[in-house]
Design a protein that fits this description.
This protein is of the alpha+beta class. The chain has four helices and nine strands, in the order ααβαβββββββαβ.
Length: 180
C-alpha cells in the first residue's frame, strides 16, 4: 500500500514538473491582436505539412473581431496552383490566451506575442482519431528576424516538435487574401 502511495505521489510530482516546463498561454488583448499577419513558420505533427513542406510559402493572414467579440482568423495559401482562403472563428475560453473553434473543433493558445512583430500560437485538434498538434509563427511583416526564428524554434522544441516537423517560409508566395 505504501509503494502505491509513493508511486502515485511521484507520478503526480512528475506531471506537475512537466506542466510547469511547458510554455503557457498568455493573456491576450484581442484588439491588439487584430490586423494583418503572415504565417512565416509552422511546426506540425499533421500529415499535411510533411506532404507539402517543400513547396509551401509564407501565407498572408488577417485577424479581426466579429460583432460578438469572437476572433476571426483568415488565411490564404496556394493549393494545387490556385489561391485558397480558409477562415476559422474562435471563441475565447475561460483559460487566458486560449480560444476554441466549434467548426474545426480546434483549441488554440497564444503562447508568446508582442503584437508589433510576432505571435506564436499552439493549436491542437483530432483528425481520424489522431491528435494533431501545431505551432504557428505569425509576423507582422514578410521578414523574419533571426531572434524571432530562434524563439520559435526554442518553443517548438519545448513543445516536443523535432526539426523535421518544422518549416520556416522565406519565400513570400503568390497568394493574397484578395486573390483567394
Amino acid at each position: 500500500m505504501m509503494k502505491v502511495a509513493l508511486l502515485s505521489l511521484g507520478l503526480t510530482l512528475l506531471c506537475m514538473l512537466l506542466a510547469e516546463a511547458q510554455p503557457r498561454a498568455e493573456r491576450v488583448d484581442k484588439n491588439k491582436l487584430t490586423g494583418k499577419w503572415y504565417v512565416t513558420g509552422v511546426a506540425s505533427t499533421c500529415n499535411w505539412l510533411q506532404k507539402r513542406k517543400g513547396d509551401m510559402t509564407m501565407m498572408p493572414a488577417d485577424i479581426s473581431l466579429t460583432k460578438e467579440g469572437e476572433v476571426l482568423f483568415s488565411m490564404a495559401f496556394s493549393s494545387q496552383g490556385k489561391c485558397t482562403k480558409m477562415e476559422m472563428t474562435f471563441k475565447e475560453t475561460e483559460t487566458p490566451g486560449e480560444f476554441y473553434s466549434e467548426e474545426y473543433r480546434k483549441t488554440a493558445q497564444v503562447i508568446k506575442i508582442d503584437y508589433e512583430h510576432y505571435g506564436i500560437v499552439y493549436a491542437f485538434w483530432t483528425v481520424d482519431e489522431k491528435v494533431c498538434r501545431e505551432l504557428k509563427l505569425l509576423t507582422r511583416i514578410q521578414e523574419l528576424t533571426p531572434e524571432t526564428e530562434a524563439l520559435f524554434r526554442q518553443l517548438a522544441e519545448e513543445k516536443d516538435f523535432s526539426d523535421d516537423l518544422i518549416a520556416i517560409f522565406f519565400n513570400k508566395g503568390i497568394c493574397t487574401l484578395a486573390d483567394a
